[in-house]
Amino acid sequence: MAEIKTKPTPADVAAFIDAVEPPVRREDAKTACAMLERITGEKPAMWGPSIIGFGSYHYRYESGHEGDMCRLGFSPRKAELVFYMLTDRAGEAGDLARLGRHRTGKSCLYIKKLADVDLAVLEEMATAAWDHMNAKYPA
Fold it and tell me: Residue limits of the YdhG-like domain (predicted)?
């Protein structure tokens, strides 16, 4: 089985964010990091080369594949911010409808810039996702 690449690293989160381009993405990353730190009460950590994660949990699939991942996270990619927080929880579709301009993947929320969305809704979604992960994967 291949080694999992997305795992905690000792890389400095602030230095990573300071190097993010373009400048608007850097400022959005600072805002997102502060918001998720406030919601989770966890210090941010780098997971792999580009994900800023909060907390961790252990998962195991029926296939036997298992590993550890951050409970919530985001990545300030060049084209957009990617939030790892979609859980298919009850009410999530309604929250997405109120959020503003975005797109989604299986568990990812893609936002070009935070100015395109309602930050209060994003914060509600992050809080609900954190609560969902804590209930599904108790510490």
Answer: 26-129
In this prediction, residue 3 carries a pLDDT of 59
Full-model pTM: 0.92
The sign of the torsion formed by the CA atoms of 33, 12, 23, 110 equals: negative
Query: Cα-atom radius of gyration of the chain, to the nearest Å?
Result: 15
What is the DSSP pairing of strand 72-76 with strand 81-84? Answer: antiparallel
CA distance 18 to 94: 34
**CB within 8 Å of 86: residues ≥ 6 apart:** 92, 104, 105, 106, 107, 108, 109, 129
**Stretch 103-131: mean pLDDT:** 97
Class of residue 71 by CB neighbours under 10 A (exposed 0-12, middle 13-18, buried 19+)? buried
Q: For domain 13-133, which architecture applies? A: Alpha-Beta Complex (3.90)
Residue 34, C-beta contacts closer than 8 angstroms, at least 6 positions apart? none
| Residues with Cβ within 8 Å of residue 62, at least 6 apart in sequence | none
